[in-house]
Amino acid sequence: MGRLLYLHGFLSGPASRKAQDLHERMRQRGLGDSFACPQLPVSPKAAIALTESLLAPGTTVVGSSLGGYYATWLCARHPALVRGAVLVNPAVLAHVSLERYLGPQKNLYTGEAFDFTPEHIAEMRALEINEPKRDDAYWLLVEEGDEILDYRQAVAKYPRSRQTLLSGGNHTFSRWHDYLDAVIDFADLG
C-alpha cells in the first residue's frame, strides 16, 4: 500500500487546515494510517533530508505553496519511490518569491521564531527543477486569485501535466474541500 505525504508551506505546519482536512478525510475513508505530514525544518536542505527519509515505494506527495516546490523536487529525483505529486498553489520560484521574507520570522502554527537567511535562499535555489519530467506524475491545482504567488508561473512550469485552474480563490486554495476525495484518489492508495 502507498503513502500520502503532505508537505506544508512556508510558516505553516501539520496543524494547518489543509493538512488536517486531508488527514480527516483519509481517516473517514479508512486510510488514516497512510497519511504523513512532518513539521518541515526552516532549512530547505534539512526539509528535503527529512522528507526523503519518509519516502517509500508508492508515495504520493501533496505539496502546498513551498511544499509544492519540495514535492516537485522529490517527484523528479525519486521516480522509483514517488508515484506522483499534487501541487496546490505551488511556489515554482521559491528562491525568488521568498526573498521578501528575509529576516526574523515566526511560524504561524508552532510559534517558533527564526531568522530566514540568504543561506536558506541558496539552499532553495539548489533544489530548483527547471523542466519537470514525468508530466503524467503531476497534478497542478491552482486558483487565479492567489494573492501571494502568480498562478501563471505554475501553469507555465507544468504545461503538459494535469491542471485544474480555478477562477477566484486565494493562496490557501479556498476550494480545498471540493478536491479532498480527488486528491486521495490520485494517490491510488488501494
Describe the model.
By secondary structure, this protein is of the alpha/beta class. The protein has one domain: 3-Layer(aba) Sandwich (Rossmann fold). Helix content is 35%, strand content 21%. The protein has 7 helices and 8 strands, in the order βαβαβαβαββαβαβα. The strands form 2 sheets. It has a 6-stranded parallel beta sheet, sandwiched between helices. Strands 5-6 form a two-stranded antiparallel ribbon. α1 links the parallel β1 and β2. α1 packs across α7. The longest helix has 12 residues.
Give the helices and strands, then pairings:
Blueprint: E1 3-7, H1 17-28, E2 35-36, H2 44-54, E3 59-64, H3 66-77, E4 82-88, H4 94-97, E5 103-106, E6 113-116, H5 118-126, E7 138-143, H6 151-157, E8 162-166, H7 176-187
Keywords:
190 residues, alpha/beta, Rossmann fold, six-stranded parallel sheet, 8 strands, 21% strand, globular
